[in-house]
Design goal:
This protein is of the alpha/beta class. It folds into two domains: 3-97 and 291-309, 3-Layer(aba) Sandwich (Rossmann fold); 101-282, 3-Layer(aba) Sandwich (Rossmann fold), CATH 3.40.50. Helix content is 37%, strand content 13%. The chain has helices at residues 11-19, 35-41, 58-64, 83-88, 101-116, 119-127, 156-167, 182-188, 195-201, 221-226, 244-252, 272-275, 291-309; strands spanning 3-5, 25-26, 47-50, 70-73, 92-94, 148-152, 171-175, 191-192, 204-207, 232-235, 258-261, 280-282. It has a seven-stranded parallel beta sheet with strand order 8-7-6-9-10-11-12, with helices on both faces. Helix 1 (11-19) links the parallel strand 1 and strand 2. The longest helix is centred in the last third of the chain and has 19 residues, at 291-309. The protein is globular, with a radius of gyration of 21 Å. It binds glyoxylic acid.
């Protein structure tokens, strides 16, 4: 059984594979493999363990060849994988839901506070040794207490973000394909609204939906026009959900007050129109970046691979 791990994953994940009796062929460098290296490395693989930096498309699946049984992504998002191409070749796909919920919600709430309270801007004042003095009118932000958080995509990460926001005194509205568990809705006092209602009511909009064809550019010019000019947009999900050029224009035209971004449409490239803006806070995709979380993600992906290799049901299949 040839298990190819196409990116460097934590040792804990490799141990799961080794303990189960496999000798994974694992990439061990920090930087991602070049496409040509990747295409040759996957040749003859039975199972691929992939990172979100690897595009798993028809070309890659064909390069792997007919033995390929599964692609086990070390991420909850799987927009790097052409699931239809996998399906048509009877290749299973798995992801890592659950284990990164809290870490990602932490980053969402951090971005909410950073944008609404101008924290990165304030830190830049100190670091650049710009003269400053406490003042009644100095660097005032919007704050979050009694403000409305609109959660787009009320899955596990959306709920975990809403829970944190509620503790900060925010009121939660959400837009999601389905109604959430009534007990959770009651605990969060969260109201389900239409997407347009969410856009017009929210002081902060936080994105937590999956990235796919139907959510691509879910946020573009018309949506920014519907948001309050005082509202902030926070994205810890995936870059392509936001039309980044339209976001730049919305900021330029003061259609919204600012943005907090952990993900980018053409990651790792960032639209230059965002770079100089004090009302935009940007992080280099740190949502799941804690030691424990990355260990748990690698172990879950590896356990999926082991289950499939042993003809058992995977723990967390996609779809
Ligand atoms: C991280 O971005 C993930 O989708 O797991």
């Amino acid at each position: 059984m040839k298990i190819v791990v196409t990116g460097k994953i934590p040792q804990a994940g490799l141990e799961v594979l080794k303990t189960a009796g496999f000798q994974p062929d694992a990439w061990s460098q920090d930087s991602a493999m070049s496409r040509s290296d990747l295409l040759s490395k996957v040749k003859g693989a039975d199972i691929l363990v992939t990172l979100l930096t690897e595009k798993v498309d028809a070309e890659l699946l064909d390069a792997a060849g007919p033995n390929l049984k599964a692609v086990c992504n070390v991420a909850v998002g799987y927009n790097n994988i052409d699931v239809a191409a996998c399906k048509s070749r009877k290749v299973l796909v798995t992801n890592t839901p659950g284990v990164l919920t809290e870490a990602t919600a932490d980053i969402a709430i951090a971005l909410i506070l950073m944008t609404t309270r101008r924290l990165a801007e304030g830190e830049r004042v100190i670091r650049s040794q710009t003269p400053w003095q406490w003042g009644m009118h100095y660097m005032l932000g919007a704050g979050v207490t009694k403000r409305v958080l609109g959660v787009v995509g009320m899955g596990a990460i959306g709920i975990a973000t809403a829970r944190r926001a509620k503790v900060c005194g925010m009121t939660v509205v959400y837009h999601s394909r389905s109604e959430i568990d009534p007990k959770v809705a009651a605990e969060l006092a969260a109201t389900r609204v239409t997407f347009d209602e969410l856009l017009s009511q929210s002081d902060v909009v936080s994105i937590h939906c999956p990235s796919n064809e139907s959510t691509r550019h879910l946020f573009s010019k018309p949506q920014f026009e519907k948001m309050k000019p005082t509202a902030f947009l926070v994205n810890t999900a995936r870059g392509p959900i936001v039309d980044e050029q339209a976001l730049v224009e919305a900021l330029e035209n003061n259609q919204i007050a600012g943005a907090g971004l952990d993900v980018f449409e053409f990651e790792p490239k960032v639209n230059p129109g965002l770079l100089h803006r004090d009302n935009v806070v940007m992080l280099p995709h740190l949502g799941s970046a804690t030691v424990e979380t990355r260990d748990a993600m690698a172990m879950l992906a590896a356990n999926n691979a082991v289950a499939i290799a042993n003809n058992r049901e995977p723990l967390t299949p996609v779809g």
